[in-house]
Amino acid sequence: MRYNLYHILIMVFIVIYIIIFAGISISNYISYVNICDISIYEQTLWNTLHGRIMYKGLEQANQLSLHMSLILFLVLPFYALYQSPITLFILETLCLGLGALGIYLLSVQILKKEKIALLLSLSYLLYPALHGLNLWGFRPIAFAVTSLIFAFYYYEKGDKKIFLFLIGLAL
Question: How far apart (Å, rounded) are the C-alpha atoms in residues 81 and 90?
Fold first, then answer.
């Protein structure tokens, strides 16, 4: 694949988004701003690492009995490396930022115009609702955004296996 100015710009925009929003998320956590449910998710992951699969002691229940958060199993290896809520905020921001790459690839696939694809990706990164999702504590549902974007991309490419995997991941 040959890289051009649009490829470089989309990567720069994504990196800027990740740096800014990971920083704000971590700052919010340290300042006790909008940290809704982080203790539930962190405890669920910590318990899973220690043999109590998806158990939430705070609610005396299994996470999967209340929310079908299978994505937490993919988050778990990263959480195991650094067991902190900060890991969860960074992963969420990274995932949401990478959604712009999916928008770019999908737009190029459909529109065949890289300039418009870049503008659509940038509009995704500037979308206030995305910022709200990113900054309102940790939410496993945030991972579904990027999963669904890439699912549509692979559907357009005709790769039904990856499409179905990503749709399943979004559940």
Answer: 13
Q: How far apart are CA 125 and CA 23, in angstroms?
A: 15
How many angstroms separate the CA atoms of 150 and 74, rounded? 17
Phi/psi at 58 (nearest 5 deg)? -60, -35
> Do the beta carbons of residue 95 and residue 141 sit within 8 Å?
no
Rg of the chain taking only CA atoms, in angstroms: 17
Mean pLDDT calculated for residue range 145-166? 97
Cα–Cα distances in Å, from 31 out to 4, 21, 82? 41, 15, 20
**Residues 54 and 66: beta-carbon distance below 8 Å:** no
pTM of the model: 0.89
Q: Where are the beta strands (DSSP E) in the chain?
A: 55-56, 61-62
Apex 163 CA angle, 41 and 143, nearest 5: 20
Which pLDDT tens digit goes with each residue over 4-42? 999 999 999 999 999 999 999 999 999 887 667 888 888
